[in-house]
TrEMBL record:
Natural source organism: Paenibacillus ferrarius
Annotated protein name in UniProt: GTP-binding protein
Job of this protein: Abolishes the inhibitory effect of tetracyclin on protein synthesis by a non-covalent modification of the ribosomes.
NCBIfam families: small_GTP (TIGR00231)
SUPFAM superfamilies according to UniProt: EF-G C-terminal domain-like, P-loop containing nucleoside triphosphate hydrolases, Ribosomal protein S5 domain 2-like, Translation proteins
GO-annotated molecular function: GTP binding; GTPase activity
Gene3D superfamilies the record matches: 3.30.230.10, 3.30.70.240, Elongation Factor G (Translational Gtpase), domain 3 (3.30.70.870), P-loop containing nucleotide triphosphate hydrolases (3.40.50.300), Translation factors (2.40.30.10)
Domain of life, per lineage: Bacteria
Pfam short name (any one): GTP_EFTU
CDD domains documented for this protein: Tet_C
Cross-referenced SMART domains: EFG_C (SM00838), EFG_IV (SM00889)
Length: 664
């Protein structure tokens, strides 16, 4: 990746389960570094990184927000991400552009489902991470229990570097266990000996000294931890109470000490990725870009490798919460908002792709919902507004069926619908109505089979295709390959077929996306005179649908991985509910006076269960959930979706409809 950059920098994402105190921690980092003069608050709607009206009103983060501060001559880009599971797509996009992370865990609630999910994503991308146990001043704070949970549910390599002084209302700060002559900590596991024990599992010289009983200086332990922390093999753990500003300076020191700076060279050819798109009232579309190699300057022409287009940069801005300044250039290792790229989308690679890390896949929308305008006259404005919001969050996947005046979007959950309603009103002045959301099913072939199409009428046209269709492994998606040689079917026509296969599989026999299958093109033929370049675009859906009609398809339903915790007295009722909802669950456990059960639930049977559980348990029941994949539905579950457009199985009608659309 090149040499370390001359300016000392850190690119850090701040992550947590909802309500663990991310935005409050960010606010205090900005305040203690001198970046802001007065503290904002989430509750009063004055936090720097909650810039949307809806975020200030509801006190939750909906979009990731970039801000920056300097500490001891190091420039730190900080991305504050949402904690609510409905906005997981924002977290996913931020993860990709970070060199280091802070994962906040509440000292009261401990490790929660979103904490685990983010942790696994950080691990899969090998992102060095600091663990910060917040809310040490709250009633019920239990650092020893939380450390045990972290070791069990996240990583055994969490190494406490600060020990708490006091707890709950007596919490007054923390002592550095890696400082020379630090007193032994009253909390088990929070001392130098515990750090040495953990690190000796990774480091041979340290292990030898530990076994032989040789005293190891605290300085040496810190140096060893720094080395492994920056490689993402050990994870320094801190404690604090962000709302009181306790532990904040220690956290800033730890960012410098234990998280790596970006690598890359400003002199190399450009390699950058777009991780967020926003619309600015004066500058239009702004693309938030992380640069891995090279430099972007005002008035540069950039090549968008994902879309195959070139566009000119009009301005480069440093966005800091609600403020922005024109900086003229952004170089390797830095993050900025680039204006002038009108065709850019989230995830696009600018320049070379080889220095850009892969994107994690966490967020899977499980619900589809129809949106209605207040009147027919408002539909064009509503389509334009939702298209803009889809640019900012591609997972909304807006579908506009013009002939039937139907608008559909995909969402993660009901909170997201409330936020969309509020956004359409406050930002676009539109009153939209959303139907009840319905679950997104999928289909998969029931058996192997063949699809054949000879599209040779009405002239001029000629496209002959034969597909082999086979069921794939669960979770494998679509696997496509061609066995046809170039002299049989020209490369340009083969590329057209490959491009059209995923489109054609968006609607199967039951109207749902077809997945977990292998499609092989076994034969293809064009005609020297009669073939038109778009003939294969018309033929591919007909050949595939004819094949699916032969194989038949099975319905797949989305599952949720859930963890339910209730007072023990409600345990029996929860188990009875789980059986009714067709859940598959592990034997329940009793932890203290709490009943805990984990398992998999069909999304369709459990949409309103969080509300029901809360009502039943007097608000003391907690359900946390994450996407658990798709699995075959029981035979008695029927779910068919109305097809959009003409069915390719009705070939003559389909050819007429498509040819007319292509010509216009």
């Amino acid at each position: 990746m090149g040499k370390q950059l001359s300016v000392s920098r850190r690119n850090v994402g701040i992550f947590a389960h909802v309500d663990a105190g991310k935005t409050t921690t960010t606010e205090h980092l900005l305040y203690h570094s001198g970046r802001i003069r007065a503290l904002g608050s989430v509750d009063s709607g004055t936090a720097q990184t909650d810039s949307m009206d809806v975020e200030r009103e509801r006190g939750i983060s909906v979009r990731s927000a970039t801000t920056a501060f300097s500490w001891k001559e190091t420039f730190i880009n900080l991305v504050d991400t949402p904690g609510h599971v409905d906005f997981l797509s924002e977290v996913e996009r931020s993860l990709r552009v970070m060199d280091g992370a802070i994962l906040i865990v509440s000292a009261v609630e401990g490790v929660q489902s979103q904490t685990e999910m983010i942790w696994h994503a950080l691990q899969s991308l090998k992102i060095p991470t600091l663990l910060y146990v917040n809310k040490m001043d709250r009633i019920g704070a239990d650092p020893a229990r939380v450390l045990q949970e972290i070791h069990k549910q996240l990583t055994p390599m969490a190494v406490p570097i600060y020990a708490p002084l006091g707890i709950e209302d007596t919490f007054r700060g923390a002592v550095n266990v890696l400082a020379e002559g630090a007193p032994s900590a009253p909390t088990p596991g929070f001392d130098l000996a515990a750090a040495v024990e953990k690190l000796s599992e990774l480091d041979e010289p340290l292990l030898s000294s530990y076994i032989e009983g040789v005293p190891i200086p605290a300085r040496e332990v810190k140096t060893t931890l720094q080395r492994y922390a920056r490689q993402g093999m050990a994870y320094p753990l801190l404690v604090g109470a962000s709302s009181k500003g306790i532990g904040i300076e220690e956290l800033m020191e730890a960012i410098l000490d234990y998280l790596p700076g970006p690598s890359g060279s400003a002199e190399q050819p450009l390699s950058a990725v777009v991780f967020k798109v926003e619309r600015d009232k004066t500058m239009g579309r702004m693309a938030y870009v992380r640069v891995y190699e090279g430099t972007i300057r005002n008035r540069d022409t950039l090549f968008n490798a994902t879309r195959g287009v070139e566009e000119k940069v009009t301005q480069i801005r440093k966005i800091d919460g609600r403020r922005a300044e024109d900086i003229g250039l952004v170089a390797a290792g830095d993050i900025a908002a680039v204006c002038g790229l009108t065709q850019v989308r989230i995830g696009d690679v600018l320049g070379r792709s080889d220095a850009v890390p892969p994107a994690p896949r966490l967020a899977v929308p499980l619900l589809t919902v129809q949106v209605h305008a207040q009147s027919d006259a408002q539909y064009p404005a509503l389509v334009a507004a939702l298209q803009e919001l889809t640019d900012e969050d591609p997972l909304l996947d807006l579908q506009w069926i013009q002939e039937e005046r139907e608008l559909h979007v995909k969402v993660m959950g009901t909170i997201q619908l409330e936020i969309l309603t509020s956004l359409l009103d406050s930002r676009f002045g539109l009153q939209a109505r959303f139907d009840q959301p319905s679950v997104i099913y999928k289909e998969t072939p029931s058996k192997s089979g063949e699809g054949f199409i000879a599209y040779t009428m009405p002239k001029p046209c000629w496209a002959i295709l034969r597909f082999q269709i086979e069921p794939g492994e669960p979770g494998s998606g679509l696997v496509y390959q061609s066995l046809v040689r170039g002299e049989q079917l020209l490369a340009q026509y083969q590329n057209e077929v490959e491009r059209r296969v995923p489109e054609a599989l968006q609607q199967g026999l039951l109207g749902w996306e077809v997945t977990d299958l292998k499609v092989t093109l076994t034969y293809g033929e064009h005609h020297v005179w009669h073939t038109h370049p778009l003939d294969f675009a018309v033929a591919t859906p007909m050949g595939l649908m004819q094949g699916l009609a032969e194989t038949g398809t099975k319905l797949l339903e989305p599952m949720l991985q859930v963890r339910i915790t209730v007072p023990e007295v409600y345990g029996g009722k929860v188990l009875s509910d789980l059986v009714q909802m067709r859940a598959i669950f592990d034997p329940p456990q009793i932890s203290g006076d709490r009943f805990v059960v984990e398992g998999r639930l069909p999304a369709a049977t459990s949409l309103d269960y969080p509300v029901k559980l809360s009502a039943m348990s007097g608000g003391r029941g907690v359900i946390t959930s994450s996407f658990g994949g798709y699995q075959p539905s029981p035979p008695d579950v029927q779910a068919e979706r109305k097809r959009r457009g003409v069915n390719p199985l009705d070939q003559s009608k389909y050819i007429l409809a498509v040819r007319k659309a292509l010509s216009t």
